[in-house]
Amino acid sequence: MTRSSAKTVGVMGGLGPAATCDFFARLLRESKAARDQDHLRLLIDCNPRIADRNEAIAGRGPSPGPALVEMARGLERAGADFLVLVCNAAHHWERDIRASVSIPFVSMVACTVQECLALRPRTKCVGVLAADACLGADLYGRALALHAIPSISLDPARQARFMELLYRIKSDDRGPDLRAEMREQAQSLRDRGADAIISGCTEIPLVLGPDDWPTPCVSSTDVLVARTISFARSEF
Predict the structure, then answer these.
(1) CATH number at residue 123
(2) Phi, psi (5° rounding) for residue 171?
(3) Could you tell me if 139 and 81 lie in one domain?
(4) Which among 87, 111, 116, 217 is annotated as catalytic?
(5) Closest by alpha carbon to 63, among 72, 75, 74, 50?
(6) Of 94, 103, 115, 63, which is closest to residue 221 (Cα–Cα)?
(7) Annotated catalytic residue, options 116, 134, 201, 217
(8) 116 is catalytic
(9) What is the pTM of this model?
């Protein structure tokens, strides 16, 4: 398939908006386009009004499932050939999304786990740095367990602090103190035995770069960018 005939990408975004913008910017950069026409066509629904995933999975708020389903259907109606969802935790409703449309859905979680499996030497324990909702749904833990790979997450006190940092990032705090503390959170997973870490929240790349990790890191955002480009330019 030529670049000019690549498939149209339906991007389910806004969870949160800055992470969606970051995904878009990385996709543009990694597309290696020599001219405008070589870029992928994207249909982006950036809807920050979708219910909080952390509150929903904790049983304290409404489900974002119906809104995600409507977003997926809207992108299909608009002409998307396949869908991607720029939020790890929202993949808890992946089954509902898939059942609501007739076009493929590229799973950020599945692709990230595949990338972990490709690490050499094979990882013995994966640290998952992610929001409460992603951990509460055990998205990565269950997926890794299927391949007999154990996973760990932050201890409760650190996880609570991580969530505070996460919401500060969402409010546009990207300062050096926050960055340093986020690096410390990742280091704590390494200290407890993780020989690889999944960056399982799309806000994390807004403050941590490739050189900030204490051990090999698989960034769910970067994985989704790569798979989106590959999928759009392949036959399926």
Answers:
(1) 3.40.50.1860
(2) -90, 15
(3) no
(4) 87
(5) 50
(6) 115
(7) 201
(8) no
(9) 0.95
